[in-house]
Structures are given as C-alpha cells and as structure tokens.
Predict the structure.
Amino acid sequence: MNEADIPIDIHAGKLLEWLVSRRIVDKNWHLHIRNIRNKISNAITDMPAHDELLKLLSGAHINYFHCQRIVEILKTTEADTKNVFGRYGSQRMKDWQEILKMYEKDNLYLAEAAQILVRNISYEIPGIRKQIKHLEQLGEEADKKVQDLGRSEKTVYGEYQQMCKQLGVSGSNLRQELVEKVFSELPGMFEQITKTVQQLKKPIELYAAFAGSDECLPLLKHVATKGNTTVYEFTYGEPPLSVEEPTVALELEKQPAVSDQIDFGDGDGGAIDFGDDGAAIDFGDAPVEVEAGEIDWGAPVDDGAAQQIDLNISLEESGIVVEEDGHAGGVAKGPDAYSVLDSPKHRERFMNDLLELEAFLRMRLYQLGGSDKAQLLSFTMMDSFPDHDEKSLTAMVADVDTVHGALTGELLQHLHQIKHSPEYVDILTGNIEQKLSSIEKMKETVKRLQEKSANFKQQSIELKPTQTKIIDQTRTLQGQIERDISKRYKNRVVNLYGTNL
C-alpha cells in the first residue's frame, strides 16, 4: 500500500501532545503566545468598516486562521496604500502582517489552534450542553411541582369544603355562622337526643333487674323518664320556678385586644365624696383632711347601769321570714341552670351511664348467642326477667349506639365546646381558615414556579444558538488543523477523532 494512502488518525484530546512529541511545536510554546495576544488586542482598536471584519472580530477567540482572513480583507480595503514595490504603507496592514509572522515562528499558531480545539471539545461544548440540560431539567421539575401543588390545592380545598359541610356552614363568615348555630341548632339537637333516650326505658329496666337496684344509671334514667331537664331538677328532684342560665359571652366578630387600664378621670387627683357633711379624701397633691364626726350608736346608755337586751322578740315582729326546708320555689342559677345534656360535668356522667348500659347489653347478647353456654358467665339472677332475646337485645344495642353517635357527633361537640369555651370558636375558625391560607400560599408558590419554569426554558432557548455557533467554529478549526497537518505529511489524510461534535 502506498504510504500516501495511509490516513493519520489523531485523537483530538491528545492533539497538542501529538504535535509536541513530533517536534512540530515547542513544549514551551505558551510562553510566546502572550506577546501575540497583546499585539492582536492593540490591532483590533484600529480597523476599517467592513461587514466581514465586524463578524470576525465579534466572534470567538481570534486565532491564526482568523488573522489570515483579516489580512486578505485588508488587501482590499488598504489597496490604495500599496506602493510600486508591492508593499503596503498602511499601519493596519503592517500590524496584521507582523502578527502572522509571529504566529508562524516555531508553528505557534498550530499549538494555539490545537489548544483552542481541545478546550472547545473538552470544556466549552460539554459545558453548554450540560447547562442547557440542567435548565431544561429545572424547568421540568418546576412544572412537576406546579402539577403536584395543583393536586394538593384541590385536596386541601376539598378538606375545607368537607369541614364546612360537617359544620353545616357556607364558609363566608365562619365565626358568625358558628355562633348563630349555638343558639339556633344546639337546643334542637339535645331535644332530638332526648327523644331517642326515651326509647331506652326497657334496656334500663333490664339492667336494673340484673343489678338488683333501681339506683343504677341515675342520670340516664332521669333523662329517659323526665327528659333533658335542668341540672337543678336532677339534683333536687323538683323543677325550679325560674331559670337564669349563665350568659354566653360570644361575639359575632372577633374583637381586637384592649389594654387593661383603669381610668381615674381627667383630673390630676381623684376624690371620694361621702356626702355633704362627710369628710372628703383627696388623692391629689393637697393634704388629706378628715373632719371629725359623731357616730350615733342608738339609744343612750344609763351611767353606771348595763344596758339590757330583750331577746324575747317574735319572728313576725322582727320581719324575718323563714323559708321551708329544701329548695321549693328556688331559682336555677349558674351551672344548675344548664340542661343535663348541656352541662359539661353531667354530660360526661350521662355518657358513662350510656357506656355502662351498652357494655351490659353486649355481654348479655354475647351470652345468649354463645354456642357453649355452660362455659359463659351465669346470669341466674335474670331468670325472673325473661322478656328479652337476641333480636330484642340487638335492637336495644342499636338504640344505645344511636344515642351515643348523636351525642358524640362532630357538629354537636363543636357547638357545645363553643358555648362553654368562647375561645374555642377562634381556635376552630383558625383551623378552618388555615386551609384557605394554605391554598393562597400554594397559589403564590405556583405562580413563582411558573415564572421560574418560563425563565429556565427561555435561558435554555437562548443558549442553543451559542452552542450551535461554537460547534460550527470548532468544526471549521478542526478542518483547518487537519489540512495544515496534511500538508506537512505529503497531503496524507488526517482524521481528528473523538470530537463528539
């Protein structure tokens, strides 16, 4: 095979090492490049107006091959300075011709071109590609977060609507709606529960027969027979003449905090006046003056003789009225004025009675439904109360569960808490409104993420032309180097591989 037909394959990343190893360039070539770069910087400041020159000078790093093209253009623009000896009188031409000579000495231009090629294929192009990929990835992540926040926003809004639905409010004015429900719906809820409790008379009698005492489940039995009466009536066994229920301190609108301050008036000192003849105590700057007065202790006492007190005075003459023993004709005040189901203390006792009854009914139902009755707890004392079976017991348990479910209903518990703890309405509305606040924060975050995503995508789009331009310039430089090396080896084909362009 002819030697001219054998190609020269050079790895692009090791091009500079290849040139040094074959003594085409000196290993200390970089020490002489600085002078050339300074010369180019000075020459650029004085250039004629030419479109291609502007394009060359505004492009990538100027190398030897760019300088060759600049000289070719100057031969046209500086043609009128050429003398009869073929030399140019233009300083511009002289500067660039000198630059070419400096480049060609010791093949410095080839070493610099190899360095530029290696830098482009190893750092510049991969760096831009990586940056574009990173920006695209950031944009995709931002879009994904927007989608996730969109789903979270729907979930939180659904929770908000569910909470409003459970409370039976629209959500337009939570505090006002909840406070109004305390007065409009809570009494009706207790009334409805009372009607259901009245169906528990039979289970209560069954449990009393088992316990052998009529004193069991006192509060549950009271509500089943007499209804949801006041605590006063349950305690004393008779209804009050009047009921003065404690005032519920609920505001429709949340009031701003007011500083606790005592106002003693506009004057400099406060004075307490005890009447026209009495002494005045002045708390101002003036001295305190108290006028002596005479205290009247009643009838005069004889000198030398003790006053005798007559203790034989009838109650009628004294005006003192003695009421009957007990609380007949009493007034229900304070906690006694609440209904049994409304009073926090008695409501808890009522729940205990209800759970005690439920436990008994389920145990009895388990006994009647057991396959091996000999191994179960004996209920011999209930033989005298045979009017029940599995079906009737199942119905009784269902009635107890109905009362328990109604009394522990979420809305009723919230309204009950609001009534007996005015601060609770702020806590409840705060928890609900926090959902709306979270939604607003999500919307703001979505807006920022959308802006970031658009910004990332725009930066990626703007970098792509730069990437294309550097790739084109690198390919051009690669071809120029290959041709230059080929001339040195009798025009053999030179292949720079590993560029990944």
Summary: The first helix runs from residue 15 to 21.
